[in-house]
Amino acid sequence: MPQNEYIERFEREHGRRLDHEDRLRKKTARETHKISKNSQTLTGLRAKLFQKTRHNQKIQMKKAIRAHEEKNVKSSAPSEPSSTPLPQYLLDRSQPTSAKALSSAIKNKRNEKAAKFSVPLPKVKGISEEEMFKVVKTGSKTKKKGWKRMITKPTFVGPDFTRRPVKYERFIRPMGLRYKKMHVTHPELKVTVQLPIISVKKNPQNPMYTNLGVLTKGTIVEVNTSELGMVTAGGKIVWGRWAQITNTPENDGCVNGVLLV
In 3D, which of 187, 181, 157, 166 has the Cα closest to residue 259? Predict the structure, then answer.
């Protein structure tokens, strides 16, 4: 278990306070007073940063209100044509029907686009921290300190990556286990090409492994697809596409994956 999840673990095992909901409600009610006080008293750089944050929050709030208002719009066209004939004096009357706004549907589709990929490997086997990390003992004479960890799985680091000083480096990524390219198979074209890796998007094992750039089976990575000549509907070149790793890189010595189309 990661060290930063001890609060969630305690809540699962022992539950919450009996007045948790009431305290949470009071804390939420006090937030407006705190925001008002900060907006009036903060000065200098803190005030600029605070106002920028509030500006972004208000934009998101207005977007949510507008989307909620567009949820049910009035349409004069009936949903189904009536089978019974109408008298002449009723033909001019419009029958308003509720329909969901098209713009809201398009926005929701854009937001949910990333979650709609049917990945080749929906489930993967979990990897324990004991298998992922090797404890590195430090200390000039006693070797009693054990806060450093060496990653035993293949990793990816960007081209502008610079190691921290050895004295302060907590996670060690060995040079021999770093990969810059992967073999990607296009599911429709049935071709396999070697493409450079741009970044690691999501590791299903742990969010911390995503930040460290660990490459395990089922990891979603972004690859540079400019060599494939893929273009959008507008004629622009697609530079980056997501791909999922389908093999076990530490056993095979290479990274293989399938492009998510």
Answer: 187
pTM over the 0.70 mark: no
Angle between helices 44-69 and 20-41 (to 10 degrees): 120
Residues 6 or more apart whose Cβ sits within 8 Å of residue 104: 67, 70, 71
User: Rounded to an integer, what distance in angstroms lies between the CA atom of residue 162 and that of residue 150?
Assistant: 17
Question: Judging by beta carbons within 10 Å of its beta carbon (0-12, 13-18, 19+), is residue 181 exposed, middle or buried?
Answer: middle
DSSP H/E element including 245: strand 240-245
- Rounded to whole angstroms, the Cα distance separating 3 from 135 reads 16
Full pLDDT tens readout for the chain, 261 residues = 566 788 888 888 888 888 999 999 999 999 999 999 999 999 999 999 999 999 999 999 998 888 777 666 555 555 566 677 777 777 666 554 445 555 666 666 666 665 555 788 888 999 999 999 999 999 888 889 999 999 999 999 998 899 999 889 999 999 999 999 999 999 888 899 999 999 999 999 999 999 999 999 999 999 999 888 888 777 888 888 999 999 999 999 999 999 987
149 Cβ neighbours under 8 A, 6+ residues apart: 133, 134, 135, 136, 170, 171, 172
Distance separating alpha carbons of residues 201 and 244, to the nearest angstrom:
10
Asked if 175 contacts 201 with a C-beta cutoff of 8 angstroms, the reply is no
Q: What is the CB neighbour count within 10 angstroms for residue 104?
A: 16
d(CA 172, CA 132): 12
